[in-house]
Amino acid sequence: MNENTPVIQARNLDLTFQTNDGPVHALKDVSLDIMKGDFVSFIGPSGCGKTTFLRVVAALEEPTGGTVTVNGMSPDDARRARAYGYVFQAAGLYPWRTIEGNIKLPLEIMGYPKSEQDDHVKRVLELVDLAGFGKKFPWQLSGGMQQRASIARALAFDADILLMDEPFGALDEIVRDHLNEQLLELWDKTHKTIGFVTHSIPEAVYLSTKIVVMSPRPGRITDVIENTLPRERPLDIRDTPEFLEIAHRVREGLRAGHAYDD
Amino acid sequence: MIKSALSVLTVVAAIIGIWYLACIPMNMHEAVQQAERAGAEVTPAKAIDRLQMGGIALALKNPGLVGGAFGQERPRLPSPEQVAAELWKTTGAMAANGRAFSKRSLIFHGWITLSATLLGFVFGTGLGILLAVGIVHSRAMDMSVMPWAIASQTIPILALAPMIIVVLNSVGLQGLIPKAIISAYLSFFPVVVGMVKGLRAPDAMQLDLMRTYNATRAQTFWKLRLPASMPYLFASLKIGISASLIGAIVGELPTGAVRGLGARMLTGSYYGQTIQIWSALFAAAILAAVLVGLIGLIQRLTLKRMGIQA
Description:
The complex is a heterodimer of chains A (262) and B (310).
Chain A: E1 8-19, E2 22-34, E3 39-43, H1 50-57, E4 65-70, H2 75-80, E5 84-87, H3 99-109, H4 114-127, H5 143-155, E6 161-165, H6 173-190, E7 193-198, H7 201-207, E8 210-215, E9 220-226, H8 241-256
Parallel strand pairs in A: 3-7, 3-8, 5-6, 6-7
Antiparallel strand pairs in A: 1-2, 1-4, 8-9
Helix pairs in contact in A: 3-4, 3-5, 4-5, 7-8
Chain B: H1 2-37, H2 47-52, H3 55-61, H4 80-90, H5 92-96, H6 106-137, H7 139-154, H8 157-170, H9 176-199, H10 204-212, H11 217-252, H12 261-270, H13 274-305
Helix pairs in contact in B: 1-3, 4-13, 6-7, 6-9, 6-11, 6-12, 7-9, 8-9, 9-11, 11-13, 12-13
């Protein structure tokens, strides 16, 4: 694959859910390129289709129109090729498995030999700063640590793409700041391509190389903002004028999409 | 620990107290009659008048004879110590004499019932789990099996048990197996219901996660659905084992009351041996409590091993 081919390419994507209250237009005419190593945030109000888009990429939803390719394949083939790791809003760790056991889950399913599994677990636990917690059970960890463990689980099988659906949405702001910092560090170390759904403007601006602003009814893209902040981002970058300017542009994009209307 | 033991003991003491009190009105007529035969003064003097009276009124008229309500040979309601003595006589005392498996021993009859219970429980649980797995994985089974399972439980087992015994007898099956089948018939149902719920316990997110791993159905079953169903399974097993025991006892009634706790209850009622009925009842209750307790223990050990906080 050429360096300049997008890892994820969506063209005129449409998705309509048939519900009892009539059709819901979750995605309308969504076109987007995500390049290798990009950190793309999807931001918008509830119902704007940001999660749906991520689920289409992950082949968890079937689009009703348009095309999407992941690593040049159909999303379903990409899923079978285990091209991505998916992190959900809830950590969703199995309470009957230790942290180690949880991280091994995808490895067991994918048939990694036992000897390799331990190496993978050790490596990703270090990546998410949970070394030494492998033998603990999920309930023995805080919410933030559980979410880190679930990120480790998504990283365990070395997929190049990481899809994250509001992974820090249920956590308090202080924990969130900390996890944002760690996520940037992790992204810098692993060079993964990340798709990240969020409700939070500061989170989107702080993390991304590219911010996709979406609006609801029908779910569509209203703006794609290239983030000009340097890759080296201490937490207090959020007080700089550059940061605030980009945040302002995101807010403008949301307003243009009537995100603030009732 | 001490506090909860104390409250349990209080409840037990209250039950025994009520039981003793209930013996008075239940057995008063017999007590007064026996006293009359022995030549004592009783009020009212005429038996026909006494029959019109309630037990409590009779006790109030003859306060001196209340003691006769206890320790009768064939009381309407035996007192706790009579039942306890009979229980001991037919278990511990016989075992001490090396006659634990004599036909008069409750250990022997209990074992007969227990073996049918356990075999039926294994059948029923196995069938229940298999049906639940089918129901969760096949839409056709989901639609077709559940109504039949529910219908099966609406038929009174007392009506069905003799037919099962007769039909199986005509194909040459008798003794343990027919009783176990009746047990299984009662115990598979809670297991089906519990396991269907348990196997469906993983939420959409958990199933999506499995999908992102491209997990097969079998992998999803073994790694997600089955472990997630364990707490539900154990809750069902507790109901299932007591249902099994009831099934085994009911299965012993139509066979001519030869062996087993059910047989003891039936012969007791043939011959007006209330003490024998009550001691068999208690033996069954104690057996059920032990079985449920055992499953509770296995549950605790299993869930603890699985790291689940029960």
